[in-house]
Amino acid sequence: MTIADKFFQLIVEHSSKTAVIHDEKIYTYDELNEKVIFYREILLNKDISKGQIVFIISDYSFESIALFLALSINRNIVVPITTENLTEIEDRLSEAKPDWIFNLRDGDILNIKDNVSIERHNLITRIQNENASGLILFSSGSTGKPKAMVHNLDVLYNTFLQKKPRILNFLVFLMFDHIGGLNTLFNCLACGSTITIPENRRPDHICYLIDKYKINILPSSPTFLNLMLIGKSFEKYDLSSLKMITYGTETMPESLLLKLKEQLPNVKFIQTFGTSETGIAKTTSKSSESTLMKIEDPDQEYKIVEGELWLRSKTQILGYINHSNDSFTSDGWFKTGDLVEEFDGGYLRIIGRSKEVINVGGEKVLPTEIESIILELQEIEDCKAKGLTNAITGQMVVVDIVVKQGYDLQSIKSIVRNHCKLKLDPYKVPAKINIVDALAFSDRFKKIRL
Amino acid sequence: MNKINREKISELVFNCIKKYQEEYEQIIDIAEGEQTRLFGGNGQLDSLGLVSLVVSIEEEIETELGIAIVLADEKAMSRRTSPFSRIGNLIDYIDELVSS
């Protein structure tokens, strides 16, 4: 019996509990089990054998969860794809070269015969030889070509085998092709909790679902939470079922966290931390009002090297199939690129990404520090700080600000500048302030910074 | 197209200096007029102050004259006479940039 089998056995035991809510329909664990059996029969009929690479092109859905489970029991290497951008799909197909494609959007099952006989990357053969199931995730590719990361899926499942049953309703916010989204999914399935899948990720729709289905846990990102705050979505619905909001994927500005806590005083705010390369670490926040957190995970080690967080975990990727392993040291440490500060009692604060540091005449400035200060102003809806080259100081701080409706645009630059001068060292005060209509964010609700 | 004269640019630069003084609560003594030293030597601005002033002049030129220019680039820094040394040199340099 493989670990994927054991994981599935655990799921089946939740029988009549609610597994998935999607598109106003409610599915029990028994129904999920039946759907997995249905897909396993298809795999058998189509002669889809273990070790083959299979794409699932789909959004998060009851069907895609069942197919994902069926493929892992069948010891396939699963590649979940949620993008609707055809070029991105093509790119991913050419990098991971699947034997099969399940396109749940149009119901097609395709056998890519040209790929069946090709020689596989040694990371793929390693999984095949170990008789394990595999997972390929792609980095978001904000800089350059997306990296194809190979996980041993059995190793990921293994960390969920000892979970105790817990009936809670989770809203899955992160996507199916994201380590954070999969972590939430596996955790819910192992505990017998409910996964509610939103139709879209508009703040009002999310709040509607929280109200209607009495959601308890909302995993999210700071950018998304700010959108909810701006749209006053919190005030339109009854969110009393909400026990906890987790946030991750980007740095949380402290001023935003305080505003959120004020708006939702009974909700616990917990920071999550993880990378696609090392998996999600177990973390605890010092308090709901604090961005200080601790990594307390028996499967993860960390250390801080010149301000950068390094992680080494049991759940880390075997490697990349289209990229060098230079973000890993020879002894297996992953350089996260996240800058952290250390505090008493083992607490850490994530302060930004190393590549986003702005260098003003040799002084280092972190965009999120500036953003957190500017967000304190009631006139400001959102903002983003970045570096811009100049020949005098090397770089200077520039901020894009989105001003709330009803405030005077004439005086706003002076208000922002004066507030920054009061709160920040002179070299951190933005030299240039641009008023913009909106800030760009990715489909994972992360501010686009570069 | 109207030719942008040096006088207009001079007015604009002095206005930005005035605004800078208000914004940053720093007095720049402009008694020497265009001979006033800005940056380097006995200049009255430090590098951060110069960056702020330069950005505000760039923005003002764009709004008032509809011309986007970059003042603080390598070209400016590699000049034998720095455009940022005195107010007059800065006006000359801007005049040169907007005319070309």
Describe the structure in your own words.
The complex is a heterodimer of chains A (450) and B (100). Chain A is of the alpha/beta class and 450 residues long. In chain A, strand 9, helix 8 and strand 10 form a beta-alpha-beta unit. Chain A has three domains: 156 residues, Rossmann fold, CATH 3.40.50; 167 residues, ANL, N-terminal domain (Rossmann fold, 3-Layer(aba) Sandwich); 79 residues, GMP Synthetase, Chain A, domain 3. The mean pLDDT of chain A is 93. In chain A, the strands form eight sheets. Chain A has a seven-stranded mixed beta sheet with strand order 6-5-3-4-7-8-20, with helices on both faces. Chain A has a four-stranded mixed beta sheet with strand order 2-1-10-9, with helices on both faces. Chain A has 14 helices and 27 strands. With 100 residues, chain B is mainly alpha-helical. Chain B has one domain: Non-ribosomal Peptide Synthetase Peptidyl Carrier Protein, Chain A (Orthogonal Bundle). Chain B has four helices and no strands. The longest helix of chain B has 19 residues. The radius of gyration of chain B is 13 Å and the shape is globular. The model of chain B has no long low-confidence stretch (mean pLDDT 90). At the A-B interface, helix 14 of A face helix 2 and helix 3 of B.
Key terms:
heterodimer, A: 450 residues, Rossmann fold, GMP Synthetase, Chain A, domain 3, seven-stranded mixed sheet, 29% strand, globular, B: 100 residues, mainly alpha, Non-ribosomal Peptide Synthetase Peptidyl Carrier Protein, Chain A
The CATH topology of chain B is what? Answer: Non-ribosomal Peptide Synthetase Peptidyl Carrier Protein, Chain A
What helical percentage do the residues of chain A reach?
25-40%
Cα end-to-end separation of chain A: 46 Å
- What order do the strands of the largest sheet of chain A run in, or round the barrel if closed? 6-5-3-4-7-8-20
Give the domain tally of chain A. 3
Structural class, judged by helices and strands of chain A? alpha/beta
Helix content of chain B: 55-70%
- CATH topology assignment of the largest domain in chain A: Rossmann fold
* Strand elements of chain B, count: 0
Most extensive interface, chain pair and sizes: A-B, 15 and 16 residues
β-strand number of chain A: 27
